[in-house]
C-alpha cells in the first residue's frame, strides 16, 4: 500500500463507518482468516463491522475465532442485502474481481460504499477506492497483517486476530512450503505465535479432523488419477455419483489436487469435480515452476488465480470436458517440456 492509500485509509477509519467485509465465494482458509482477522481488528477500533460470506464454507474452518458472527448471504439474504446497502465501507478480501462472489455480485455493484480491496491474485479489477494488491504475497492474511502494521496498530493484534491470520497464511502456503513463502512470511508468522496463535492446535483443527468417508473419497480420487508422463501432467476426476456415494460435504475434496504434484516428474495437476446442482465441472489446477495455471484456466476454463494455483469451470459434461482438456493439452506439449 502506498503512502497516499495509507493516508486515505487512516482518514476513512478515523470516522465511525458501517463496514462490510467480503470473502470470495466458496471461501477458503485465507479468505475466512483475513476477513475474520480484519473484523476483529475493526471491532477493536470501535467500528461497526460484519463479515458477509457469499455462501457456506467447510466445517474445518468453522472453529475459527469470531466464526459465529459470519453472515451467510445465501441463507440470510434480506439481512445481508440490507447491510450491503447501508454500508459506508466495503472491504473485499482474497479476490480480484467482483464476479468472484457469485450471486452477491449484483448487490456489491449496487452498493454506494467506498471499496477497499486487499488481495494477492493476478490481474486485479479496478473497482476499489483503495486497491492494496500484491501478487508476490503468500496470502491475503499476510497482507492484512501488513495493513494493520501500516496503520501503526500491530499492538492491537489479539490472540484471536493472530489465530485467524495464522490459519490463512498456513492454508494458502501449503503449511509454509509454496514459493510465495518468504522470510518475511516467517517473520510475520513468528510474530503471530508471539501474540498467541497456537500453531500446533491450528494445524490440528484444519488438517486432522477428517471423517472416514472423506478418506475413502480420497481413495477413489487417487484410483481415478490419470497420469500423462509425456505432458508431465496428472489429473483426477470425481463424478457426482462418486461424491454422493461417500457422503460428500463441502471441503471434502480440499487438497486432493495436490497429490498429482507429488509424482516425480509431474509439474501440472488438475482435479475435475462434477457439481450437478450448478450444472458445472469445477476445476482446480496446480503447477510447480513457471507453467502458469492462471493463464491456462483464464484462456480455456473461464477461471484464473495464481501462477501455481488456479480454478476454473466447464459447462460440458465430464466426458466432454476431459476430451476437450486432452485436446487443449496437446497444444501445450512444448511448454510443459521446456
Ligand atoms: P481452488 O482450486 O482451491 O478453488 O482455487 C485455487 C486458486 O484459484 C485460489 O486462489 C482461488 O481464489 C482461485 N480461483 C479458484 N476458482 C477461480 C475462478 O473461477 N476464477 C478466478 N479468477 N480464480 C479462481
Ligand atoms: Mn488467498
Automatic annotation (TrEMBL):
Residues 247-330 form the DHHA1 domain. GO terms for molecular function: nucleic acid binding. Residues 18-169 form the DDH domain. SUPFAM superfamilies: DHH phosphoesterases. PANTHER family: BIFUNCTIONAL OLIGORIBONUCLEASE AND PAP PHOSPHATASE NRNA. This is Bifunctional oligoribonuclease/PAP phosphatase NrnA. It comes from Flagellimonas pelagia. The lineage of its organism: Bacteria, Pseudomonadati, Bacteroidota, Flavobacteriia, Flavobacteriales.
